[in-house]
Fold:
Amino acid sequence: MKNSILAIETSCDDTSASVISDGIIKSNIVSSQVDHTKLGGVVPEIASRGHQKNIIYIVEKALEEAEISRKKLDAIAFTLGPGLLGSLLVGSTFSKSFGYALNIPIIGVNHLKAHAFSHTINKKKITYPFVSLLVSGGHTQIILIKSYDKMKIIGETRDDAVGEAFDKCAKILGLDYPGGPLIDKLSYDGNKKAYSFPDTNVDGYDYSFSGIKTSFLYFINKELKNNPDFIKENLNDICASIQSKLISMLMLKLVKVIDDFKVKDISICGGVAANSYLRKKIFNLSESKNVKIHIPEMEYCTDNAAMIANYAYYMYKDKIFSDFDVVPYSKHKIE
Structure:
């Protein structure tokens, strides 16, 4: 296998390892931690311990599935940031040790850039420039991309990410974590026009989702005072209504970017890219604005090492390697 890279992703609570050879993903193993579901959210210390427990097994599984021995690897890639610092340290320390022992280079990858390029996995031809809508539990950004190493954030959330808004609204409704996929599922049988919520838009291309969460909480509490069974009796309609509002807020700014920047290629990525209603609205946009839509395969929407491997492959070809004393970072940054 040519140019074989082992990639490791540990930015949050999923431990993942992937092998890419000659630009093609050969394996992508993901282990999701279940403890956080019981606790209603990701606990950083528990996430770090989970990575320590799982990482060796996950790496061995990825190498086995890719049918490659560690001695045939040309580089080790890992998530450098952003993410939970403790989780990042587990992945980066393991990768640096592995790379040092094998005497091969290491590649620290920006998690956000990897997400933005996830729709290019296993594809040789990419159209530039394109705009990527990155939507997840930790990030909501609109990114203008001219090449793999030239991208700029046009707009982003000023407070909470849209994925977090989904999860918090789900928690208010008494749904399990992560709640975003449950809201999406329950919305299938709901009326999205049953209830209305105020817009919390800000100027420019930025987003703000903290206000909509507060509005939703006040709405639910008010209705429960009048009817203790309000949520139970109207759950599908509630989910459909809040989902419609959150997605419409995303689309409003994306349409503005398309009109102002005259781009013809749009990608959506991150965990919320799996949302069925967002996908429907995106494809409707394709017809109304005559733009081409790019969406990663479902397994590459949430955090995974394949996207780290994919982006690292571009870096490897340009010999962009990291020093062994590189330090992970927890804050968001692209440029």
